[in-house]
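Researcher: Please predict.
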Amino acid sequence: MIIDGIKARLSTINGVAVSAGIDIKKNVQPQIVIMPVKVKDTISSGLDASYRQDLTLEIVVVCQISQPDAVQRLLDLIHEVRVALFKNERSITKPSWLPHVYQMKEIDEIKIYRPDVNETHLVGVLELQVSHNKNF
């Protein structure tokens, strides 16, 4: 439900393929992939009706390096991701478009990975932590 909501929100970015999972498609450019990387559950008692779950997601932005302005395009796409997630929100930590989430925040600096000689993609990674309640 959370990943689908984020995917729908990022799908508003023009000219970008958005997917959820762990695969980066070679022929689709540019693209955004939402990858869950960590889940932390905080259960205080089995008698409680619900418990807190912190989901860490990586939003991977991919550009083809053969473009002459690949670095600028990657930076622009990262900006567009932030705009899609946070624009017009009264509180950026509690997005109105994810009502069941009580906290969403960037937890690390954006990482940009320099490609090796044989690679054809430039990759930027934005890491989000999304907190919500789960029921037993």
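Model: The first strand starts at residue 17 and ends at 20.
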